[in-house]
Amino acid sequence: MESEGLHLNISYVGSCGTVLSAEQSAALQTSLVILQNNYKFNRVFFWGKISGIKGDYFIAQGCGNDEMVERKTLYSLDCVTWGLLPLATQAIRDQCSVVKGRFIGDPSHEYEHIEIQKLGEGEDATEEENTIMIKEEDRLAAVIAKIDEEVAVVPRGAYVRTPHGLVLKNRSFEGLSVTESGKLHNYFHFREPVRLNEKTLLEKADLDKSIDFLDPIHEDIPRGGSWSLDFVRGGGLVTIRSLLWPGMNFYHVPQSRKFGYIYIGTGEQNKDLPFML
Amino acid sequence: MMEEPQNNEGTPKTGNSKPQTPTGTAVATPPNMAVNLTPTEEALVNAKAYLLKASNKSNLNLYDHLSRILTKVLDERPENVVDLFEDISKNVKKSKFTSTSDTILDKVDKTAEVELGETQKILFERDQEEAEHDGGEDEVETPLPNLPELMYHFEQAGVGVSREEMMRIYLALKQLVDNYPLQSCRFWGKLFGTEKNYIVAEVEYREGEEEEEEEEEEHETEEPDTEKDDEEGEGEEQEEDILPKPDFKPPPVIPREENRTGTNKKTFFVCNEPGQPWVKLPAITPLQISVARQIKKFFTGRLDQQIISYPPFNGTEANYLRAQISRVSAGTQISPLGFYQFDEEEEEEEEDGNRDSFIESPDFEGIPVKDLVDPSMANWVHHVQHILPQGRCSWFNPVQQQEEDFEDEEDEEEREEPDEPEPEVGPPLLTPLSEDVEIENIPPWSARLTSSLVPQYAIAVIQSNLWPGAYAFGTDKKFENVYIGWGHKYSPDNYSPPPPPPVQEEFPSGPEITEAEDPTPEEEAALRAAQQEAMEAAEEMEDEEEEDGEDD
After folding, report:
1. Where are the domains of chain B?
2. Are A15 and B442 a contacting pair at CB < 8 A?
3. What family is reported (chain A) (predicted)?
4. 3-state class of B38 per DSSP?
5. Which of A14, A39, A40, A38 is closest to A25 using CA atoms?
6. Residue B140 contacts by C-beta under 8 Å, 6 or more apart in sequence?
């Protein structure tokens, strides 16, 4: 969610159990402004909180001209001093996918992972144990990238892609109507489209090229079970919670430009989802 | 002047080479008018005529549209108008289509928002009687907690729901206290569902009141049951050929704990939104708890939803919700050491060590916050009984019951003496948290201060890692527990459903059920030959007999 007016935005997701203490929200409002200035971001987003056993990570994201690609992620343990997270490359993400369990809350903590490699073939095969040390900072970067990729949500029409390929905020976006906001196909994954490229020409015929350049979330697998859409104040506020990443809350006030998402959770994917529906 | 009409026409290629095309194609200018005009004026007239041409689709023309936009721009004078131009144009077009007056009857359907507002309005209405007594008499002691204060403490820890919602919950609790004879009432927490959420209140009835209420309920429900039994009895009489009954005896059903004891010590009320009527959850049975431990399902928000799972869950979502609430309570309801103590009078009566009641200690001095966040967690104790694997808090001997059942059966002698099962024992009440088991190297509890900047006035917050969403705060003499989450236990490994029971063993194969081998053709031939011989011998015998008879 946007850091501008954070105290208002955070109250939209209050029904999901997401609250910031007065001290935290005051500290964030101060430090995020400085952050925006120092890193020369166009806009700064308060991304959320990943709670660890000993401490919590507060995450902020800043973006440049292109809202989708030019994003940098920063973390802080005390809401005041911010550190830039390493870029989650595919190698880091593969490496960190083996770590399970909760975050500790110490960026320099190292997880030990023993990888068993098989050498040779047939009878000569010998097993060799490789110990890999994985830094929590890397894991944090990998998890945030994964959450962004899988469950970051924006309403349809909130962003446009210019002919140059730049993704910009749509100035004339006026919010979804109440009936439209109750339908999952009006919300998009905020990532480079994956499924859109697999669609046939016939399916793509009716799409608006500048608006429908993202994947709608209703196609997620398991269908009908990945998201929980809820009208909070009757029809005055829509919240969408991801069941795959519990803690990811998206809100949108119908017929207004207010929308955003925040993740407050343990940073663990819900692998049991198929059994729980 | 020549350039403008060309640009407006929108066909620059042809426009540049043939400036006169608009005249020919777009509008045919009346010849008598064109006579007195200079070529420049003529072009202007042509251009204007072209701009005034109405669209086939929308019946608008560009000339009017542009003049409207320019009027709007000049009236409103927005900043950076050139960037907004498309938006303004779009808005002007849009406003053109919406009719200001409607000929259809002006009846607006109530939106869901209005309906919700109306249900919640009741919460904010003051009781007439109360208003009359206002300030007159001393305030009657009420079981209603000071929720805003408690939630203020939780908010410092970054736990809870938004303040407006909390106020509504508070008023809804007040409604609950007014409508039911309650001894104590507490906001237990909030559980998320895929469609709606649950707000849970934990209450205790005043002595004897709950029984009365339940009896009434039972009378209502009993009647259809007896009818059903009668029908079944008749059916059996009509059937002449009774089906064989299996000799499988289901394991004895472990009876549920009485109200006010063990898992049914507290009663729970739930509602989806504050202001909606509170629904009382049914009492929990041990079977439901033990099945709930083996399954992991999302709540939907509808209490009558069927739970489709393996192993099958006996009941609806209301029962599952109740089971999860019991499990969360047993695992996460904590209080500072010394706040509660065992009642000494009762202690003498019950000497089996399984004490289940406690009272607030009168001389509790409060524990310094610094000690409350001590990582050993020795200063916090559980004040809800541990639930045994059986699904009860106090162990029940299933064999005992079996014996009673068998007493009137005749085959008592044949019955094998079942082994006396080992009683299940859990940690006693008011056990410190330091005794809790780790979850695969993760400590079960995390404790921290709410503020690092002003530690003098900070409060201690305890967070359960086993039940994510369960929190407790402690400061001076106050403490409170709350649960805001999905109602699932944490496990670093993923859930795997229990395997189906092993396949039943085959019947032991013996000669009586073994299939005999088919005879070979040789054997058949031999048998046939033997039969033939026997026949012939018999015939001969008959012949002889006949001959003998003839002889007689």
Report:
1. 3-97, 147-211+250-395+425-485
2. no
3. Belongs to the flagellar radial spoke RSP9 family.
4. coil
5. A14
6. none
Closest CB to B196 among A22, A230, A276: A230
Q: Which residues in chain B have their CB less than 8 angstroms from residue A235's CB? A: 111-113
Which residue shows structure tokens 């005034």? B52
Tell me the two tokens of residue B266.
């507290």
CB contact, 8 Å: B493 with chain A?
yes
Task: Report d(CA B497, CA B495) in Å as an integer.
Answer: 6
Tens digit of pLDDT for each residue in B99-156?
656 666 666 667 777 888 888 888 888 766 655 555 444 455 677 888 888 888 888 8
* pLDDT tens digits along B370-391: 888 887 888 888 888 888 888 8
Q: Chain B partners of A7 at a C-beta cutoff of 8 Å?
A: none
The alpha carbon of residue A197 is apart from the nearest alpha carbon of chain B, in Å, by: 30
Tokens (6 digits) for B192:
């998320």
pLDDT in tens, A82-106: 999 988 888 888 888 888 888 888 8
- Dump the DSSP string for chain A: -BSTTHHHHHHHTGGGT----HHHHHHHHHHHHHHHHHHT-SEEEEEEEEEBSS-EEEEEEEE-SSTTTSEEEEEESSSSS-EEPPP--HHHHHHHTT--S-B-S-TT-EEEEEEEEEESSGGG-EEEEEEEEEEHHHHHHHHHHHHHHHH-EEETTSEEE-TTS-EEE-TT-----HHHHT-GGGEEESSS-SSGGGS-HHHHTT--TTT--S-BGGGPSSTTTSEEEEESSTTS-EEEEESSSTTEEEEE-TTSS-EEEEEEE-S---TTHHHH-
- Chain A residue whose CA is closest to B488: A276
Does residue A101 belong to the interface with chain B, where contact is any CB pair within 8 Å?
yes
Nearest to A100 among B112, B492, B495 (CB): B492
Q: Is A122 left (phi over 0), alpha (psi -120 to 50) or beta?
A: left
Cβ–Cβ contact B494 with A under 8 A: yes
What does the block give as tokens for A220?
A: 């997620």
Q: Is A230 on the interface with B (CB under 8 A)?
A: yes
DSSP SS3 for B306: strand
| B484 interfacial to chain A (CB closer than 8 Å) | yes
Q: Which residues contact A162 (CB under 8 A, 6 or more apart)?
A: A168, A210
Whether A241 contacts chain B with CB within 8 A:
yes
Measured distance CA(B330)–CA(B393) in Å, rounded: 10
Distance CA(A45)–CA(A3), nearest Å, equals 5
